Give the backbone structure.
Amino acid sequence: MITDDNYELYFLQYLEGTLRPKERKEVEAFMAQHPDLAEELTLYAEAPIIEKDASVVYANKESLKHQSSMSFRIGSTPWRWSAAAVVLVAVGAIFALRNSNVEPVVPQLAVTRPAVKVLPIRENVMAEEPIAVKPQTVLSSPDIAKVIEQETIEEHLEPVVEEETLQTFAPEPLLAEVTEKDDLESALYRELELLLSMPDACVAEAKSAEDDGIFATTANYYNPSTEQMVNVVVKGYEAKLAYDRIMEKTESFREALSVIFS
Amino acid sequence: MLCVYIAENLKKGLLNRKEYNKGVDLWSDDAYRFACSCCDDAECCKDAVQEAFAKLWEHREEVRWEKGKAFLLSVVHNHLVSRLRYDKVRSIRGNTIEEALAPDVSFDLKEAINRAMSTLPQVQRECVQLRDVEGYSYKEIANILNISDQQVQVYIFRARVALKRQLKEYHI
């Protein structure tokens, strides 16, 4: 029933044509009884539509934006670490894949770099068996193999599972200078491509973790041209995609390695 | 496990940093305009927009992209309501009907509408702004302002009637 308290709602719906025929007749009867209120229908219908004032703009948009962070924290919760995957790819594998008919490595360079090893993939992330790599087989250069042998190959070939071992494996990393990334060509991504393009790069370590809802991926590799370990970290949404890409590439490496060393 | 995590988040359509920054470009003007439609204090409006984006960033993993703008406007509304309560005045904008109808002021239609709008209660101005400028449905406006959609319709009806009444005073 239409009353003085609810007529506005009926009037609006009457004008918008959303009332049923019975309700429309009720509204018309109400208007006949209350001509003073019926005037409001006319006023409403004649009221202007408010237009957008394009001159009103928020001036300092950049101050509201967030840039990607290069900081990296990994929680200590076991399940988070269980979610993290550790992938180490020996450059020997890359070497073997890419240099079966490529120029030999310069011996002087081989002397200055650390030993090459492949660590087994964490079993809770990658179900396949760890890959055992024989550096002598991987590296086509006898000089390099000799150098590696002098650096206690057996020790390096031991399966590494514990995180502490992984952390002590890499030298103190150099945090790469990385600026804002616009798309998937993120720091990690570019560095990864660089790593994969280097036939004599040494070790790549990639791991990913989530802490307080923030996803992060980090990768370490040895750059022989600078003779330094490079640690690149990407945090946030891009990290997820970068990690996915790494895993795709890693899978292809694993397949290639399984063929080579089977 | 990681693939599942990633897939779930993508499926939810949650905001990442890039999308958030894109939202700044797309929505900051609208949020600021919405604030200015209810409040003449530019600093207060800027504060409201800053707070809105701060909260959007804070809750970026809970807010879907298509709901981002409505989320911002809702925060702006709450900020202005808090300010209104703090100021203990009827309207943040501060104009009285008498001021709006000051006869010695010359103005055009746009100015007349602005003046007439300034005399409306805040919630009515917000409803009209969200309806006419932002194009939201009654239900969407109700969600942003946290009132019922019937209230929204009543407020819009009252606002338009009052607006036209005042414009008639200007012979517009």
